Amino acid sequence: MKRKHQKNDIGEHDLNKWGSPPFSRCIKISDLQRKRSNRLSIELNDLEKSNLSKFLNVTQIHSFQCTIDLQRSEPGWLVLGKINLTASQLCVITLEKVRTNLQIPLKRHLIPGSKKRLNESVLLDLDLVDSDPLNESVELGDIISEEIILVIPQYPRKKGAGFQRDTIFSENDERPNPFQKLSELKNHMEAISPKKNKK
């Protein structure tokens, strides 16, 4: 896969450690209409939501909606879509649940392995579209899951939550300074002690 823009630093091991996507929507390329768009609406059952929650490391998925449109684009296919996801995550500071709402645009270009470069006549900006190899079928579950994990917050934080400042090194520390107290005591003792006569 050719990916130009990644928001999260996710390693290939993290994405592939499951061995298979948390849910499967495998589409045969031969079943697609070549002269028309192929629109799909993907919904998840409870088991698939549970598997996706584990894959994303979230406590719960409240809602999931995904629309996909597969279009012929020489020399391959375009996978266009939009993912709407609402999930609960744990705040890394307070460990309270926070809601994460995601609206993720999906763009993939499936290209035959024998054609590494697109024809210049194809008006497609590869800097904005990820590319995958074109096989006999496309696993939409894999593509969708990967798109989500690449943008979902890895360190969610509750609004207003923040780390407390270390008061030991605070510049505005209002606690008594022992060295300042010693200096004040020294000045006081010198003021009340009889002064030596100058020669």
How many structural domains? 1
Shape annotation? elongated
Proportion of residues in β-strands:
25-35%
Number of distinct helices: 4
SSE succession: HEEHEEEEEHH
Query: Structural class of the secondary elements?
Result: alpha+beta
User: Mean pLDDT score, rounded?
Assistant: 79
Largest sheet: 5 strands, mixed
Strand order of the largest sheet: 2-3-4-5-6
Intertermini distance: 92 Å
Helix content: 10-25%
Number of strands: 7
Rg is: 30 Å
Low-confidence stretches: 118-128, 166-171
What does this structure look like?
- By secondary structure, the protein is an alpha+beta fold.
- It has one domain (12-151).
- The chain is 22% helix and 30% strand.
- Strand 3 and strand 4 form a beta hairpin.
- Residues 118-128 and 166-171 have low confidence and may be disordered.
